[in-house]
Amino acid sequence: MAKLGINEKSLPAQMSWRDKLNLAKKHGFSFVEMSIDETDERIERLDWNKEQRFQLVRDVYETGIPIDTMMLSALRKYPLGSENPEIYAQAYSMCKKAIILAKDLGIRNIQIAGYDEYYGSKTVLTRENFIENLQRVVDYAAENQVMTSIETMDDTFINSIAKVKKIKKSVVSPWLQAYPDLGNISAWPENNPGEDLTEGLDSIIAIHVKDTLSVTQSTPGKFKNVPFGTGNVGFLGLFKTLRRLDYQGTFTIEMWSEKESDCINKIENAHDFIVDLLTKSGISIEV
């Protein structure tokens, strides 16, 4: 029995946390994924006081919908591999704060954005800095018993589970695993997503579900805001692969509909689209 969650950025931005949790519950989701993105408003959550943290814990308990995962996409702006010593240090500090916030809120898994550098140039040093800084993050996560996982990205640095596993050879810890994005691993022409899932199964603890348009020789692909069913992701085949492999982790629908007027319709349509394909693949969803 699999759990299907939804990321916070799919839900109406103006809603309180309690309302977001209730909305997710109403539409058949088992959990919500918190977003710590590049905006100051969400980065400030890392410095919440005890009462702010406890209020969200109360909301979770009273609604019955947990926040099982955290998406730390602020690392796009503050990458772990930065050559700038201040940003390098700030990325580590943010990860430490995220680990303690997760611990306080009962979040079990922090998704680490797999960028050595995003807005700046990639070099041999940015890769080495990423590995070095990630080791520090994972060690701190282990001390606090919080799982960290690298997402496969819209970026060639880590765009497959195979590349996550290569990083894991340098950062060896049970507290570092893979959080593949089905859309991202499907979009890159060098990937065979079914094989990537099969060979990477022992590292996968959670899966993002979104549609994408493939990268080609003439187009850069599209990694966000591709409505389900209009992209190139072979969801049914990938879900059947995961069913054959007896994957037991979670699935999280990822959209960026939080500021759109038809947000609720998009949530409903995404839920029904994915649940239908999961059911056809033989994967039962907890309701």
Report on the structure:
By secondary structure, the protein is α/β, with parallel strands linked by helices. The chain has one domain (4-281): Divalent-metal-dependent TIM barrel enzymes (TIM Barrel), CATH 3.20.20.150. 43% of the residues lie in helices and 13% in strands. It is built from 10 helices and 8 strands. It has an 8-stranded parallel sheet with strand order 6-5-4-3-2-1-8-7, with helices on one face. Strand 4, helix 5 and strand 5 (147-151) form a beta-alpha-beta unit. Helix 9 (235-244) packs across helix 10. The N and C termini lie close together (9 Å). The mean pLDDT is 97. It comes from Leuconostoc suionicum. Residues 22-262 form the Xylose isomerase-like TIM barrel domain. Pfam families: AP_endonuc_2. Keywords: Isomerase. This is L-ribulose-5-phosphate 3-epimerase.
What are the low-pLDDT stretches, counting only 5+ consecutive residues below 50? none
Give the amount of beta strand, in percent: 5-15%
Principal-axes shape call: globular
> What is the residue-mean pLDDT, rounded to a whole number?
97
Major beta sheet, strand line-up:
6-5-4-3-2-1-8-7
Category from helices, strands and their pairing: alpha/beta
